[in-house]
Amino acid sequence: MYSIDQLEAFVATAKTGSFSAAARSLNKAQSVVSQHVINLEIDCNAALFDRSGRYPQLTQAGHTLLSHAQVLLAQHQRLRSCAQHLDKPFISELTIGLDEGIPFQKLSSMVNQLEIDFPNTTLEFFTASSIDIVDLIDTDRAVTGIIFSELSIPSHIDCESIGAIKFDLYVASTHPLAQQESNNLANLKLHRQLLMRSRNNKSSNFQLALSPEIWYADNYYVLLELTLQGNGWCLLPNHIANEYVNSGRLVLLPSEFKDMGWHANVDVIQHHRYSLEPMFKQFRHSLRQLLTP
């Protein structure tokens, strides 16, 4: 019968590329990890790694088993987390991380309702880039995050899509790009780009560096101000830019294409240990209405 230790050793070896690295990641002796994998291969009656080279390589059987093992370990982690918190008192604090590119207006009314339903709850808010918020959830500094979709989300964080926000390319009305029509993205490379980046120097999936000259910020309102001052072109959420477009200070990048914008998906993320708590379940349910008209 397969054990959790065997599956952990197998997945860690596949992830790290060697038995020694897997042992370090699991804080176990290499001989223990190797034996767990050998025992799993015996139980499966199949070789999971090809050991003929310097580093073990997954066999076809190993590739087939890997995804199932990862799912089972994720479920085991949830079970263990649930069991550890069965005797814990009700959590009375909600820490919310919000990407500033996501509108706050509707969120405030949802928070007011949460206060009515859970009057003894302490609320705390963070604003940061989506990537930084994932880190806040991962380290338990925040409980709930409202972010733009990221490809890399740890397996112990639950993720639910609640809609999308439209982004467009903007420049100041005084910028040279405002006076010419761009027929392709290559034209943008001749001008400075203003780009969103996290505090650990990572960019979101849809924030692509195109220009050889880039200024960075971790805040859309800083990027907006830099754009208004004519420092470069920028991808901004429409709801942040609209006021300045209407006043004539900001313009959509002139282009022969009718629509060069992006729709960025918005997700709610929570550490799975909190997912079944009534307060967090209700808040997630309310957030599904956040981006509806």
Termini gap: 53 Å
Domain unit count = 2
The shape, in one word, is flat
CATH topology-level name of the largest domain: D-Maltodextrin-Binding Protein, domain 2
Query: Helix- and strand-based class?
Result: alpha/beta
Q: Helix and strand succession?
A: HHHEEHEHEHEEEEHEHEEH
For the residues shown, what is the average pLDDT? 84
User: How does CATH name the architecture of the largest domain?
Assistant: 3-Layer(aba) Sandwich
Helix content: 25-40%
Strand content: 15-25%
The major β-sheet equals:
9 strands, mixed
Give a quick set of tags describing it.
single chain, 293 residues, alpha/beta, Arc Repressor Mutant, subunit A, D-Maltodextrin-Binding Protein, domain 2, nine-stranded mixed beta sheet, two-stranded antiparallel sheet, 11 strands, flat
What would you say about this model in short?
InterPro entries: LysR_HTH_N (IPR000847), LysR_subst-bd (IPR005119), WH-like_DNA-bd_sf (IPR036388), WH_DNA-bd_sf (IPR036390). This protein has 293 residues and is an alpha/beta fold.
Description of the molecule:
There is one protein chain. The protein is an alpha/beta fold. It is 38% helix and 22% strand. The chain has helices at 4-16, 19-26, 30-44, 60-84, 105-117, 130-138, 220-228, 238-246, 278-287; strands at 49-50, 57-58, 93-98, 122-127, 144-148, 157-172, 193-196, 214-217, 233-237, 250-252, 262-271. The strands form 2 sheets. Strands 3, 4, 5, 6, 7, 8, 9, 10 and 11 form a 9-stranded mixed sheet that branches. A two-stranded antiparallel ribbon has the order 1-2. Helix 1 crosses helix 2, helix 1 (4-16) crosses helix 4 (60-84) and helix 5 (105-117) runs antiparallel to helix 9 (278-287).
